[in-house]
Write a structure and sequence with these properties.
The protein is α+β, with helices and mostly antiparallel strands and about 220 residues long. The protein has one domain. Helices cover about 35% and strands about 30% of the residues. It is built from six helices and eleven strands. The strands form four sheets. Strands 5-11-8-7-6 form a five-stranded antiparallel beta sheet. A two-stranded antiparallel ribbon has the order 1-2. The protein has a two-stranded antiparallel sheet with strand order 3-4. Helix 1 (about 30-45) crosses helix 5. The longest helix is centred in the middle third of the chain and has 20 residues, at about 105-125. It is globular.
Length: about 220
Amino acid sequence: MRVATSADHVFAREFFTLSERSALPKVPACAVCNSQKSVLEHYLTTVLPLGGRHDSASEMLSSYVPRRLSKNLPLHRQLYDGRISVASTANGASEQALAFPIEHTKLEEYFALIAKGLAWYHWKVLLGNDDVIQVTFLTHAGERYFEKNLLNVSAFQVVRGELGGRTITYEGRQGFGCPQVTVWRIEMYGGLEVIADATSLSTKARSIGILTGPRSS
């Protein structure tokens, strides 16, 4: 167990425009976790806004992303070379949109840290090495399963959050009997789409589901 040495925003301020950064949740963090999270955030705060569908998406793309890409030319080249055209939906209509490659493992690592931060921020629950954190990208079918079997069951505590004018929304539930058992659903940038297979819309995910709990002995 490491000692916290600083306070850290659960969601990095750079995910938001300057006008959206007030009252963001903060938690204590040790130097190791803070450093690990910072590396992931440098990558994700540059890549994720490219798929924004929220109200301030245009501002993020025009005022923030170009500056970040200019500081990381290898990432800029990787995104440019890896871009593809995929089918997308907006306001119920089908259209073509650009998709960019993303390292899914970094998303999974990051949202595992997010679950730790949210559990402490809302319930003072410390998730440690003896706990399992499972991150899942929820397809349409996955959303239905998650809603029916995990978010609509009775819970000891329930929280909902909207950050930066719904730039990021989340809901969480804590199980009875064991405080480390939590369920989270997080949506970023108005339903940012993550696609595992560009040829199949059934692999498209617009939210992240997270389960935490003690490791089985």
